[in-house]
Write a structure and sequence with these properties.
alpha+beta; Thiol Ester Dehydrase, Chain A; two-stranded antiparallel ribbon; 2 strands; 10% strand; elongated
Length: 125
């Protein structure tokens, strides 16, 4: 087997646990605004999927994600789980943004269907 096609990817992220205790002193929308402001580090999953929280208001969030070749499936298109991860995060953040102080994690059920394929040249938003 040739290693010419072999790739590596290094993920860099900050441990979110040291910041977790202080988060519960804020509302859900305040916690998410702290992520945008950079006063709270993004969750490690953001490094895995190239996800950024762009804007947040109560009940409304905008996330972006830019796939790279590590998100491809065997036929060369972006794995559907990439979009599902962004959708799950967006839904969870939208619900979380409505929580009063002290805000804690929310649980939700998600269902998804995709009508068009995604590629690295066509990011999910």
């Amino acid at each position: 087997m040739s290693t010419d096609a072999e790739r590596t990817r290094t993920l860099r992220y900050e441990d979110p646990l040291p910041h977790a205790a202080g988060s519960f002193e804020r509302t859900g929308v305040e916690q998410l605004q702290a992520l945008i402001a950079g006063t709270t580090p993004p969750p490690p999953i953001a490094a895995h999927v190239g996800m950024d929280l762009v804007s947040v208001a109560e009940g409304d969030v905008v996330l972006t994600g830019v796939p790279d070749d590590s998100h491809d499936n065997p036929i060369g298109s972006v794995y559907a789980g990439f979009a599902a991860t962004l959708l799950d995060s967006a839904c969870g953040c939208a619900v979380h943004s409505t929580l009063p102080r002290p805000a804690s994690d929310t649980r939700r059920w998600r269902s998804r269907s995709h009508c068009c394929g995604r590629s690295r040249s066509r990011p999910v938003q």
